[in-house]
Amino acid sequence: MSVDPAPTAPSLSVPAPRRAGDPPAAGFPAAVLHPPGGRAAWLAWSVGVSVYVLAVVHRTSLGVAGLDAAARFGIGASALSTFSILQVLVYAGMQIPVGLLVDRIGPRRVLVLGAALMSVGQLAFAFSTAFAPALASRAVLGCGDAMTFISVLRIAARWFPAARNPFVAQLTGLAGMGGNLITTVVLAQALHTAGWSSTFGIIALTGVPVLLAVLALLREAPPGTPAPAPQQGGGRLPVGRLVRAAWAEPGTRLGLWVHFTTAFPASAFGLLWGLPYLVEGQGMSRAGAGGMLSLLVLSSMAFGLLFGRLISRSAALRLPVAFTVLGATALCWAVTLAWPHGRPPLWLLVVLIVVMGSNGPASLIGLDYARAHNPAERMGTASGIANMGGFIGSMITLLGIGVLLDALADPGSDSYSAHAYQVAFCFQLLPLLLGTAMILRLRRKVAAAEG
Question: Which architecture, in CATH terms, is 37-225+238-450?
């Protein structure tokens, strides 16, 4: 439920944006007030985004190992979904603390901590042979994963001009899709050649050179960039008031619901249920299902470039793009799930996968709303709140599908029928309707605030 701003809250409004031709403010060079981008900016972004790519590899690794995990730990659909649900729950729950950390200690230190936690969690997962230790290791991994994306966006916001931020954010998401592609192409094959422990152990050790690169090469802001302006009384705003101020801003809440509604269909599909749905529900081979998941990644990359260009040129396109993605995703899933006997033709599955590729890039519109409606001193906090949305939606969907699959399973069977998947996947239409309703409600408040 949304919370309206308290009428007595102190003013923390965003200052009027400065234009390229404006004179520099007293005491600060124009290059600092208007970050020029350039090679140094792209170097900083590249080092930061390498941690995010690794995080996506860690996050999506279970998506191609779901059936192997079920056999290794002797668990069913509900318990299997617990892996991804816990990881996503930790990720979502960490977003506000991570946003506060980014605002307080800087994104570079947060990235170092995140890379270390992901390596430790994945290494423990590689050698786990029981359900409980494996579950705990995924929680540690989710904690480290949560520290990456917001940190990279904060680095980009300080290195690039404001008008470039939506495009750079989409490039960040596109780079993350590259990590997803590594998972679907390389990891899926490695599991069946090198085995469970070797595959996940190598992924864990990959974090060491990435961490060293952050320590040696990353500068989180251009030289001479001033720290965020102090709050009233010369000190920092208390944590509670900082979170309340970010939440009271309608743009933050709209960002959360845009992220919630656009992100979760492809996220739940790619994180866990896509491969089982295609293999067990549609009768595809593992190679064919892996190809479909690769198509999802490639489609996301293409949509990321398209949306980045569109929204960088006109912020007014944010909600039209989001609503187009929501309508197309809902329509494709409705036709797919309504197909007789739960076995749609291959061409329809391809269309569905391509359309779902737009989900991740569209979710970044939510973070753009949070950045645009909050001042620099609480930008990380606001981005963390908005970034919770899609992962909350994914967690709800992962659990709902898993519970329904177990309820619809044939007695004595160790797999699920096409009909069971058909009914279980209908669950995702509920959060889709909820999120759309909240976006429609909040867009009027944001329009009023902007007016």
Answer: Up-down Bundle (1.20)
